[in-house]
Every structure is written in structure tokens, then in C-alpha cells.
Write a structure and sequence with these properties.
By secondary structure, the protein is an alpha/beta fold. It has 14 helices and 17 strands. Bound molecules: S-adenosylmethionine (SAM) and iron/sulfur cluster (SF4).
Length: 363
């Protein structure tokens, strides 16, 4: 039974130098047409399930005007939701203000995910982000004063010439905000981004590792639980929506560039706005075989620091997880460890978890 919905709003005020996501510069006419089409797509796919999580991501959903947000939230009324709904809305600092935050709060949003990336003005400029440290503090206090208690910020690290001390300052700024969730990613230089075209190179792997270690130590010692490779939260504030993905559960994805997993079929929507507006929503879809389901269970499930529950695995696939050869091999080499209930990646190997996760491809 599907309990989660992702909706992609692909518009942004400006384009960041590192961004490889499905996004377009904001244009009011496109937004209006897009929202009309989004409504059609939802009506054509949604079968009335009661939802536990809704995640509106982007792009920059917060760059919509209040009038456009109103239109979006009228569409969202199509969904039936549970009393304990987690409703996340992605924001950029420069496009939120009191009126928009109040609107979101009144309309049931109870989790904000805010892209900050860094508090350092020099690196903000490098990333082509349009806020300052002062703006961050003002807007987060504003969100808290309106009543938002569940707030995530996205940070990045491993910028060229960034030092451990720069990163340490960013982490201090985060801790000062006193919020309960952080996603923190090492900068990836993706093709088709300004950074790539400018020939910017990734920093040395040794520094990247030291930075990762600093993040883990500092966040853990300040009461944030490391619960997924790039995610930390205070107890009880894990992202329920993202756990849907990591638990390999089904979900709807609506909007240009969104992906979904419905009735055993994984699909990717087109990244072309033109095609989307012509109702050619899906660009690729395939039925997931049992073997692929298990492969996904490993690749997604071992992202969680707790790992995979052995009994749940058995009841889902009718196979003992330890009967799977690659699992056994990784247990023997101590790259995987186990306790009574779970199998999980040895914390010493979390930094190189991608090297372990690839072992499950075509396991
Ligand atoms: C889906 S993006 C978009 C959300 C929102 N528009 C924003 O910019 O914050 C969510 C996050 O992914 C991370 N991200 C995006 N591109 C990245 C890259 N090339 N390397 C590392 N992290 C990246 C950033 O932290 C970003 O905030
Ligand atoms: S990082 Fe976010 S704000 Fe920047 S271009 Fe990408 S989606 Fe837009």
C-alpha cells in the first residue's frame, strides 16, 4: 500500500554552479501551465491511498508566489492524508518570507527542508547561492516563531581550498541554529554544471575523509544521530519520507523529472518540460523483478546506519538474508556486521560504503 508522494517543482530563481538536478529558470506562464499539468498527472495516477508523507521538492518550490502556492495546495487537497502526516516543503533562504512561511504552516506543512549549503560568503559566491549567513539566522528564527519545529538544512563540504577549520565553523553555525536535522553532502562536480565546465576538480580524498570524520564526530557528540550515510537527526526527527526510499517501499513521484515506484513498477518521468506539458509524463518504466527488488533492498537499506532487519527481510522475500553469498562474504571480511536484529555496514567502512554497495549490483 503506497503511503508516500513526491512532487517535483522544477523552477528556480537562479541556477547554482554545481547543480545537476531537473530545473528551469522561473517563468510565471510556465508555472501556471505546469501546475495545470501536475493536476492532470496526479488525477491520472493517484488511486486514493491514505498518505503518511508528502515531500514537495525541487528545484525551488519556495520560489512560487503565494498565488501560485495557493494553486499548488488546492491540487494537494486531492490527496487523502493520515493524522500523522509528515509534510515536507523544500525552501531556499532568499525566497521565503513571513507571508509564505505562514501560508505553508496554515496549509499543513510541518517540516521544512532548507538549502543553506554553507554559511561562508566566499563559498556561497562560488556556489552561486544568493543568501548570507545573517539571512539564514533571520529566516530560521522566523520559521520557528511561526511554529515550525521540524526543520532540516542541507549543507555541503569539500569545496576547493576549504579547510577543516572552515568546515568546523559551518558546523558551529549549524549547531547554533538549534534545529533537529541535517543532510550534509560532499560536493560532487557533475558534468553539465558550471563548475565542471570551469574545470574545477574534487578535493583530495584524504581531506575529504578528514572532513567526513569531523562531521561524524562533531554531530554525534552534539546529540545528532547518524542514521543514513549523509543524514543526522535528533531522536525522533528522522525524515520519514526519505526512509520510505531507503526501506525500498513504494511511492508516487509526480512532476517533471520525478521518479516513482508503484505496483511493482519503477518509473522515471521525463526531464523535458515540453514533453511533460504534452502529457508524455513517463520516459522510462519497468517491472521490478524479485532479484532487482532484493538488489534495491541492499543498495538502499545499507545506506541506513542501522542496516537491514533480518526478520523483515525474511518475511518480505522468504529468503534468509545470510544465505545470500555476497552477504556472507561481506560478513566474513567484516565489512558487514550483525547484531540480534540487524545486518549493517561496519562503521569503519561507512565512508567507503559506495564500494560495498556496488557489490550488490547483480549480486
Ligand atoms: C535536490 S537539491 C535541491 C533543493 C533546493 N533547490 C536547494 O538548492 O537547496 C537538494 C540538495 O542536494 C545537494 N546537492 C545538490 N547538488 C549537489 C552536488 N553536485 N554535490 C553535492 N550535493 C549536492 C545540496 O545540498 C542541495 O541542497
Ligand atoms: S541547487 Fe537548488 S536552487 Fe540551485 S539550481 Fe539546483 S535546484 Fe535550483
Amino acid at each position: 500500500m503506497i503511503k508516500s508522494v513526491y512532487i517535483h517543482i522544477p523552477f528556480c530563481d537562479t541556477i547554482c554552479s554545481y547543480c545537476d538536478f531537473c530545473k528551469f529558470i522561473k517563468n510565471d506562464k510556465w508555472i501556471d501551465n505546469y501546475l495545470n499539468e501536475l493536476e492532470c498527472e496526479i488525477k491520472s495516477k493517484y488511486k486514493g491511498e491514505v498518505l503518511d508523507t508528502i515531500y514537495i521538492g525541487g528545484g525551488t518550490p519556495s520560489c512560487l508566489s503565494v498565488v501560485e502556492l495557493n494553486k499548488l495546495f488546492n491540487i494537494i487537497k486531492l490527496f487523502k492524508v493520515s493524522n500523522s502526516l509528515e509534510f515536507t516543503f523544500e525552501c531556499n533562504i532568499e525566497s521565503i518570507d513571513f507571508e509564505k512561511l505562514k501560508f505553508l504552516y496554515k496549509n499543513g506543512v510541518n517540516r521544512l527542508s532548507i538549502g543553506i549549503e554553507t554559511f561562508n560568503d566566499k563559498f556561497l559566491k562560488f556556489l552561486n547561492r544568493n543568501h548570507t549567513k545573517k539571512d539564514v539566522i533571520t529566516k530560521i528564527n522566523m520559521a520557528k516563531s511561526i511554529g515550525f519545529k521540524n526543520i532540516n538544512i542541507d549543507l555541503m563540504y569539500a569545496f576547493p581550498n576549504q579547510t577543516l577549520s572552515d568546515l568546523n565553523s559551518d558546523l558551529d553555525e549549524f549547531l547554533n541554529l538549534d534545529i533537529n536535522h541535517i543532510s550534509i553532502y560532499s560536493l560532487m562536480i557533475e558534468p553539465n554544471t558550471k563548475l565542471f565546465i570551469d574545470g574545477i576538480k574534487n578535493i583530495d580524498e584524504e581531506i575529504d575523509f578528514d572532513m567526513y570524520q569531523l562531521i561524524c564526530d562533531k554531530l554525534n557528540s552534539n546529540g545528532y544521530k547518524h542514521y543514513e550515510i549523509s543524514n543526522y537527526s535528533k531522536d525522533g526527527y528522522e525524515s520519514l519520507h526519505n526512509l520510505t526510499y531507503w526501506n525500498n517501499l513504494e511511492y508516487y513521484g509526480f512532476g517533471v523529472g520525478a521518479s516513482g515506484y508503484v505496483d511493482g513498477v519503477r518509473y522515471d518521468n521525463t526531464k523535458s518540460l515540453n514533453r511533460y506539458l504534452k502529457k508524455e509524463y513517463i520516459s522510462e518504466s519497468h517491472k521490478v523483478s524479485k532479484k532487482e527488488q532484493i538488489e534495491n533492498e541492499f543498495i538502499l537499506g545499507f545506506r541506513k546506519i542501522n542496516g537491514i532487519n533480518k526478520k523483515d527481510f525474511k518475511s518480505k522475500y522468504n529468503i534468509d538474508i545470510k544465505d545470500i553469498e555476497v552477504v556472507n562474504k561481506l560478513l566474513k571480511s567484516k565489512k558487514l556486521l550483525e547484531n540480534e536484529d540487524y545486518l549493517y555496514i561496519n562503521p569503519e567502512y561507512i565512508y567507503v560504503s559506495n564500494d560495498i554497495l556496488v557489490e550488490f549490483i547483480d549480486y
